[in-house]
Amino acid sequence: MNRSDGVAVFEVVSRPPSLGYVRRYPTKTALRLTREMQSTLDRINKIVQTTNATDLVVQSYARDTLLLTGSFDHCYYHEFEVHFRGVAYIGLPIYGLDSPTFSIAGDPIRHLYSHLELDADETLFEIHSDPDFRGGHRYYVAAREIELVEGMVYYYVRDELKPGERIADWVQNGG
Question: For 10-54, how does the pLDDT look when each residue is reduced to its tens digit (9 = 90+)?
Fold first, then answer.
């Protein structure tokens, strides 16, 4: 799928939608999870606003887990990871989420995405990329969980790692 400006957008629906729309109401458990998710989203937003790790990319999508990485320089390292688990829908560019703001989509947006027939434990996340440039672009991910992992991950072999640092799993010994 392409946006009007010609940028390719990655979109995946993990199960086919039907024609029916079912309104689901949040349970106490869902509301508690939403508060926990909100604190995770607040921390992600704080990192993006207060550090130079403002560029996010899709690192991988395997099984039902989407991994976004945040960095100033994705050639050498990333500084944090955002894991979406239990993914039901992805509508993101593969590369180039600039200075994004993460939030939980409001009711009007969830209604627009009602064709996805999300389960009660699936949350529609909104990622507003580059909001300072002509209003930016809004993208969406539907998932059951979100997790933030902080720490430097190097894309090359490096000696004497500090606490919280590691070498990317895909880096081979010797280079």
Answer: 455 444 444 444 444 444 445 556 788 999 999 999 999 999 988
Pairing between β-strand 145-154 and β-strand 166-167 as defined by DSSP bridges: parallel
Residue 79 corresponds to which amino acid?
A: E
Q: Give the phi and the psi of residue 110 in degrees, each rounded to 5.
A: -60, -35
pTM: 0.79
Return the closest-CA partner of residue 139 out of 96, 81, 67, 90. Answer: 90
